[in-house]
UniProtKB/TrEMBL annotation:
Protein name: Aminotransferase class I/classII large domain-containing protein
InterPro entries membership: Aminotransferase_I/II_large, PyrdxlP-dep_Trfase, PyrdxlP-dep_Trfase_major, PyrdxlP-dep_Trfase_small
Gene Ontology molecular function terms on file: catalytic activity; pyridoxal phosphate binding
One Pfam family, short name: Aminotran_1_2
Domain Aminotransferase class I/classII large: 53-356
CDD domains, per database record: AAT_like (cd00609)
Organism: Eggerthia catenaformis OT 569 = DSM 20559
Amino acid sequence: MNIKEFIVEKWMTNHENDCLYNLTDTCISPLTIKQIEEISQTDIIGELSQIKLDYGPITGSIRLKRAILSLYQQGDMENISITNGASSANEHVMKALLSSNDHIITFFPSYQQFYSYPEMLECKCDLIELKEENRWQTSVDEIVSHIVPETKMIIMNSPNNPTGTLLDKNFLLKLIDVCKERHIYILIDEIYQGLYEINSISDLYEYGISTSSLSKIYACAGLRLGWIKASKDVIQIIDKWRDYTLISTGMIDDYLASFILEHKELIIERSRKICEANKKILADYLKKEKRVSCIIPKDGTVSFLKYYLPIHSIQLCEGLQKEYGVFFVPGEAFGCDYHLRMTFTGSPEKTKKGLELLSKYFNKFNF
């Protein structure tokens, strides 16, 4: 197998631990167990001390599956499979359902896993470009133009990483009408949804597959707890793979994930306040800084800044971080130069300072 370098993840690994102003982490400022105790007024440490460190329920506890199902409009425990994060969820779906010579449709700029992993499975892959002049949106007609008899799956995330594009319910219903008669799966990574509402493909479509986790809006990336929601037939196939790949996610993660989702309203309220404060800072910044533009998304934690200087984004990001400690992911990591992935997840004070330093760095160039 020819394993392609995962450019975004490699960039994060090489740069995120050496910065003063992280303006590109997609996960809301992480919660400590102490903070979760304060939010919920529960002695979590005391309860954790009583947990036996065995495998626990192999496919996830009833408590956890019930908590996950509370995020959706329909389904039961046989529609859920537990994984180590959303990337593992996506991998299990693709590995279980795709084979060589299957055809998939996906998009860019987007998360590289959605096209590189199917290519490693020897699938044929059509990439549809999301264009900024169209507000990073695609159309159902454009998707239809790429469908062939071998098309097995359409893969996307909503909101999109890095653009923040959200697929509304009307778009999804039109796409479902096209895919249903052909039995085409629609896999949507919904990890950024939920700050306001969730339009889950698995609630709308029998061949719809939703993946998500606690990493982004729930501020608990360190738990590595994700899930798949799909038809019972699909979950049965995926659970066969789980026996080879992860067995269980462990008792501590299961307990903490259940607890977090049972108190989701309080945690989402915190996440929403952080995101809204940072969005306002960006909106105010864009009024003053004319060398940058951005379509600020309605939901999720990510956005894609466009800057108007003739300097490649990798060069810009490396110089900015070296000189001022400001960390972005370059648009080139998504195949889209002259852009920077910016997120709304950290301290608003650091976001404001980081953007000020971005402008200061721009001033160094006589363009």
